[in-house]
Amino acid sequence: MKKQVYKERIIYQIYPLSFKDANNDGYGDLKGIIEKLDYLKDLGIGMIWLSPIYASPLKDNGYDISDYYKINPLFGTMQDFDDLIAEAKKRDIKIVMDLVINHTSDQHPRFQEALKNKDSKYRDYYYFRKGNGKKPPNNRNSAFSGSCWEKVPNEDNMYYLHLFTKEQPDLNYQNEEVIKEVENILRFYLDKGVSGFRCDVINQIYKTNLENGKFSLFSRGREHYENQEGNFKILERFRKEVLDKYDEAFLVGETSALTPKIGQEYIDRRALDMFFEFDHAFCKSFKLIPIFKKPFYKPKDLFKPIFKWQKEVSWIGAYLENHDQLRSVSRFGDEKEFYKESAKALSIFLLSLKGTIFIYEGEEIGTLNYKNLTYEETNDCMAKNAVDSTRKILHVSKNRAFKWVNKTVNRDHARAPFQWDDSVNGGFNEGHTPWLKINEYYKEINVKKEKNEDNSILNFYKKMIRLRNESETLKFGDFEEIKSNNYVAKFLRKTNNEIFLIVVNLSKKTFKDKKLDESKEIILSNYEKHNKNVLKPYEAIIYKIK
Ligand code: GLC
Fold this sequence. Notes:
Elements: E1 11-14, H1 16-19, H2 30-35, H3 37-43, E2 47-50, E3 54-55, E4 67-71, H4 78-90, E5 94-99, H5 109-116, E6 128-130, E7 149-151, E8 158-161, H6 176-191, E9 196-199, H7 229-241, E10 250-254, H8 260-268, E11 274-276, H9 299-312, E12 317-318, H10 328-332, H11 339-351, E13 356-360, H12 381-394, H13 398-408, H14 447-451, H15 457-470, H16 472-476, E14 478-481, E15 488-494, E16 499-505, E17 511-512, E18 520-525, E19 534-535, E20 540-545
Alpha-D-glucopyranose binds near residues 164, 200, 201 and 323.
């Protein structure tokens, strides 16, 4: 039986651009990550997932790779990466790489050759197709808005496919050579000692055909490229040809548009070891449509989709934040009156779920969204595209469109430089202007300050992480939902020997319940003093049932 390390450890996602800038050039780097390994060890982290560190023009911040075998010089060298693996190993921290293989950067030499030379064999590594009369080859659109076809310059009526930005051309997985190349990439990093891969948009890599798609505002044509049989087959092949040859190698998939049944199929067929679902990330508090006002949102909108997946699949990657999401306290908690309580309640909620827990950098100190971020300060390509499309569809001003986009989908809120202390640039570096502006709250919310405060969010995370790391019940117990109201989540985690009841109030309301504390012992709670049979605003408790 292969080791399933990913089931036992908490995974911490690092966004390298923003974590720690050791050489003070404005960009985070690998040396910076090495400097902070002790911090992560002390937090109780057993594995880190690095967002892409490969050579890239950074049009989509590294999710556009121009050389899979090189490290982006902004982050350091291959030697720095080897040092990181060695230093992490000394501390028993494993490394997970981001595998972005649906597309490459348009600056990848093979794409460049394909673009310039009609007869290049690399044309078939991508999707080059003739237009349909004056129109693109089909009616599909890109996830980042607009058509997913871009015209090839200096060539008549020729287009290439990109499901994301036009600088991210899609690879053709009907081509054997492309699959073999990915296998080489996997081996290259596994041989270096990496434990697994987080696979970017991995359920979309295989395009069954290029027919027109059914009508849909977003991602038209998805029925021809999401969760196709060919997709399963490729992942099964990676398993057999590569992963199975390594002791503990695993894959976690980024998979939107999934049902629990299809998700479970990925696991049962060993195509993936686990995956991220997106139902909760798209829950109502996400005011995608501008007329959606916050009062419509109830915490149950968050609990319900999460519980659905907890119940229906055998294992999952559980998360509230990543580099594409708004900060969870800003979205699901309370930035003001119950700031600390709500951040701690979210920590209890997340770290009590079934599956592998993913914590995103800064989540453990209660990082908030920016107070103010302007269009000009925004870096995120998706947010900028979203402003353009909102303007086109709703005929509104740029300011208005940006206001909505900023509150809902601007990914820069998650990407601000990490807040280490209250010195210049929050200790991210020594003062060089960072690639993205510093979050305005850095003087109040930072590691140094929270380390010294007994009841800080950081110290609470530490406690909660320790509890999870030491508890077989929290790590491996079954999940069972207990009926509750619109504001309070209640669920059990149970093994044959032990039952935990987790109660999380994600609202400002107070609830009385005569039986709340009956026959139970409190294991951990986010208030210093718990009033018997009362659940205070944002109060969260882990009970052991006697
Ligand atoms: C994934 C990444 C996101 C990126 C996109 C295209 O969704 O998480 O950051 O923009 O894929 O690669």
